[in-house]
Design brief:
- The structure is a single chain.
- The protein is 16% helix and 32% strand.
- It has 700 residues and is α+β, with helices and mostly antiparallel strands.
- It has a domain of 266 residues: Rossmann fold.
- The chain starts with 5 loop residues before the first helix and ends with a helix.
- The N terminus is likely disordered.
Length: 700
């Protein structure tokens, strides 16, 4: 029996509904509902485990942006409501408790000149003081355990001599003659940004221990001249660096760029004295990816994640332990066939707690250091983040039917989410929404190996009726459509619109062992396609409410590629298709994408060395076989799969006379993030589905 506080029971019940369950909810959950939901992130708990800070991002649709504020929760009084901190109303993020628990720090762009700086607030959040006063934005930070300083990340020009901050600020203020840029090496652009010659570097910023803000000037460069980024671009944060318990050493993960950056996954773990000095590379023998340094509470052991195969970004992340005194490195739980997402040392230093994908779920595990024993600590859903407290665990968790909420584990519970107390009432309006009940299934896929998937009933499900189907294909391709919440590809929005949903974790998906993940490389168009075909056949046979005559296939990124591929290779089941930012012409993709290691690994060879290999699963070579109506979506700032892929796809459809539409976003990247754009995306997609398999199709 799950014990939840009364205001949250109805809301959280949905995350664990079996397929046959029914509810008394009144209105179906829609994409309009989803886009206006608040989003919790950024959990921080004080050392005593008495108070939790977190971010809530609200959507301002009229102003077309998200607004992030800080909230505090008294963990000793679970029934008391969480409180928004007044001082954060101008925008705040990344709250971190001071070591003494009497104050907290956060990032805000309210400073002079609009730069993002570190601020400090008292416990009630009613007032705040600016701590850093730098002419550059603070990208990420950590507080030293002794509370005497900060380690900051700032974007600077690495060729600046002397004071990198002052030099960079001066260069940025210079007036340029002409708009052109000369590049001498790649990346010329990455994700959604053109290279500007700047690198994220680390700095130590001492504080004098008083509330008086330190004037600009006393910072110490920790990585001067380093040709690399800390944190890494485009998504790195303060998880890329860590401070030793004695506040004397900074550990960080970084990739030296050189001239091979777009082909290299060789990140290493370094250390540097907090007062500056020579860098020490701890993992130079490993040419693959090393990440996330974490020092044990006693300061004696460095834990980090490591891959084994250079050039492969989806290799298994295995935990390694390095004895600081002797340098001896020992793998932890080497026989456990799961890849670590995030981890932290236990308070007593005897275990490591780790988050990992596991058979369509993302769970928390305990790994004992001495015995290497791995024990699951959560059951279902998606563990977003967690922190251990003296009383147990506080964590953010989501599910297919619930966005992230804050929980506290029950005392002595074997599973942290068993009998957990819900601590927040964010998005409490969901208690009046109807969700589609879901069920995980499995079948024999490629090579007769077990493949898993999910089916979701329409929110308005009635026994005995058949419903049109949205067949969702995930991206990555090393990813998963499992028991977790999404604000982009959310299957419950389809269920709310009256569609059943089928999702298959085909070979290449994460959470099923590394061999299963590896199976897709150089096999984008055959093994996963076989899984999708067999999964579709199994779902039709098992779930009679699926209408095989009214089905659409939709996907993004790799899922977009697969939609483009099945347009010729498996078009019979589909009345329409939706391809978002998918690969259309494989050779062109090999020449124009930015992270070349990905294409080289997935194709098995560089496009420069064997361009014909890229034609094995090249949708562009099968245009003459297309006939299924397709909606094409692509964005100008997508440098992972450039806009020309979408333009070429739409042009081919139009040239062949196939019914088609092209939705272009000039201001989005590989994802659609702006609220109004996301609203338009969903409106366009659901109008397309309605016309071909929904109520609109019946009228036509």
């Amino acid at each position: 029996m799950r014990y939840l506080t009364a205001p949250h029971f109805a809301q959280l019940l949905f995350a664990f509904l079996p397929l046959g369950a029914t509810t008394a909810q009144s209105t179906a959950f829609t994409y309009q509902d989803m886009l206006m939901l608040d989003r919790i992130s950024g959990l921080s708990v004080d050392g005593n485990g008495s108070k939790a800070l977190f971010n809530v991002r609200a959507t301002d649709m009229e102003r077309n942006k998200g607004v992030s504020t800080l909230w505090i929760k008294d963990l000793s009084n679970p029934t008391a409501p969480e409180v928004k901190l007044k001082e954060s109303e101008e925008g705040a993020s990344d709250a971190q408790w001071a070591p003494d628990g009497k104050s907290f720090y956060f990032l805000s762009g309210r400073g002079e000149g609009g730069t993002t700086q570190v601020w400090k607030s008292n416990l009630d959040g009613a007032s705040a003081q600016q701590i850093t006063r730098l002419p550059l934005d603070v990208g990420a930070y950590r507080i030293t355990p002794d509370g005497k300083g900060l380690v900051l990340s700032l974007a600077v020009f690495p060729d600046c001599k002397g004071d990198e901050v002052a030099c960079t600020s001066s260069r940025l203020a210079e007036k340029r003659q002409g708009s052109g840029t000369v590049y001498t090496k790649v990346f010329v652009r990455h994700w959604d940004t053109w290279a500007d010659g700047m690198r994220n570097h680390l700095f130590y910023y001492p504080m004098d221990g008083t509330d008086a803000p330190m004037p600009y000037g006393p910072h110490v460069a920790l990585t001067p001249g380093y040709d690399g980024d800390v944190p890494s671009k485009p998504f790195g944060g303060n998880e890329d660096f860590f401070i030793s318990p004695d506040s004397k050493t900074v550990y960080f993960a970084a990739r030296e760029a050189g001239r091979t950056e777009p082909w290299s996954t060789n990140f290493d773990i370094y250390s540097v004295p907090i007062g500056g000095g020579a860098l020490t590379n701890y993992t130079k023998e490993n040419k693959a990816w090393d990440a996330s340094p974490r020092i044990s509470p006693d300061g004696k052991t460095l834990a980090f994640k490591a891959m084994k195969r250079p050039g492969f970004e989806a290799d298994r992340f295995e935990l390694q332990l390095r004895d600081i005194a002797t340098g001896k490195v020992t793998p932890l739980a080497a026989s456990w066939d799961r890849s670590i997402d995030d981890f932290a040392w236990s308070r007593d230093g005897k275990s490591i707690y780790a988050i990992a994908a596991d058979v369509g779920r993302t769970r928390l595990f305990q790994i004992e250091v001495k015995s290497n024993t791995v024990t699951p600590l959560s059951q279902d859903g998606h563990m977003d983040t967690f922190l251990e407290t003296p009383e147990g665990f506080v964590f953010l968790k989501s599910g297919l039917n619930s966005p992230s909420q804050l929980f506290a584990s029950a005392p002595k519970a074997k599973m942290v989410d068993e009998g957990a107390t819900t601590l927040t009432a964010v998005n409490a309006s969901l208690s009046s929404k109807k969700f589609g009940a879901f069920e995980q299934f499995n079948f024999a896929g490629w090579n007769n190996e077990t493949v898993h998937g999910y089916v979701i009933k329409p929110a308005n499900y009635e026994e005995g009726k058949k419903y049109p189907v949205a067949f969702l294909i995930h991206g990555g391709p090393q990813g998963s459509f499992g028991d977790g919440w999404s604000f982009r590809w959310n299957p419950q929005t389809y269920a709310g619109a009256g569609y059943a949903v089928v999702m298959i974790d085909f070979h290449g998906s994460t959470g099923y062992g590394q061999a299963f993940c590896d199976a897709i490389s150089t096999h984008w168009g055959d093994r996963p396609l076989e899984d999708l075909q067999k999964g579709w056949a199994h779902a039709l046979k098992t779930y009679p409410f699926l209408d095989a005559d009214r089905a659409a296939a939709l996907g993004a990124s790799y899922g977009g590629f697969m939609v483009n591929w099945i347009a010729s290779q498996w078009k019979a089941p589909w009345k329409c298709l939706v391809s978002h930012n998918g690969v259309f012409e494989a050779r062109s993709m090999g020449y124009t994408t930015e992270e070349m290691w990905f294409e080289d690994w997935e194709q098995g060879v560089s496009v420069y060395d064997d361009p014909q290999k890229y034609d094995t699963f090249n949708p562009a070579l099968h245009v003459n076989e297309w006939s299924v109506p397709m909606l094409v979506i692509h964005s100008d700032k997508d440098y992972r799969i450039p806009i020309e892929q979408g333009i070429g796809l739409f042009t081919a459809l139009q040239a062949k006379g196939v019914e088609s539409q092209f939705l272009r976003f000039p201001d989005e990247n590989h994802w659609v993030l702006k609220p109004q754009n996301s609203m338009q995306w969903h409106r366009t997609v659901f109008d397309w589905l309605d016309r071909h398999i929904g109520e609109g199709a019946k009228k036509n």
